[in-house]
Amino acid sequence: MARRAETIELAVLGLLHEAPMHGYELRKRLNLMLGWGRLLSYGSLYPALKRLLRAGLITETTVSTTPVTRRPRIVYEVTEDGKLEFKRMMSDSGPAAWEDDTFDIRFAFFSRTDMEIRLRVLEGRRTRLQERLDRVQSDLSRTQKEVDRYAVELQRHGVESVEREVRWLSDLIDAERGRPADDAPPGDQPSTA
User: Fold this and answer.
1) Spatial separation of the C-alpha atoms in residues 139 and 43, rounded to whole Å
2) For a FRET experiment, which of 49, 60, 117, 137 has its CA 20 to 30 Å from that of 174?
3) Residue 169 half-sphere exposure, CB side, CA atoms within 13 Å?
4) What separation in angstroms does the CA of 45 have from each of 10, 31, 150, 151, 157?
């Protein structure tokens, strides 16, 4: 739970770097970032906003709306401390940075991250996925005779998805290093088994 809360807070600070936003707009933008498989509820967003407010990382301003809606709108804005915290969070390049539940959000804000940190995160993610791919491929070859064809197809689909992501990460790493993907050393080529 703590990692998910930190991921939401990172995303909120990153989005508020762009412009002040109200809760509805933040939720809409966060859901676009998280993707269709991990929708964010208001029950997760508003506690994160309250934690950020208490920590002094964001401020809130009540804005009057048109007479059509009676309820005033609360707009959130990142503070200088919030910008510093965002920068600190984005400079982390350890294992938590390349895990499934945090990588996408961090990647969305890579333009605000130093190249060396981006490379460490991308390489860590690729290594983690390559380890997972090797394990799944080994399991797949052992279990193909023991499971029905639909389970095998699901496993094959998972392998192909991870292989695609490993190739994508390799291309990103090559671009960061400034060399074309076709010139990558053999050790950087993903497995296509």
Assistant:
1) 38
2) 137
3) 27
4) 12, 11, 37, 36, 33
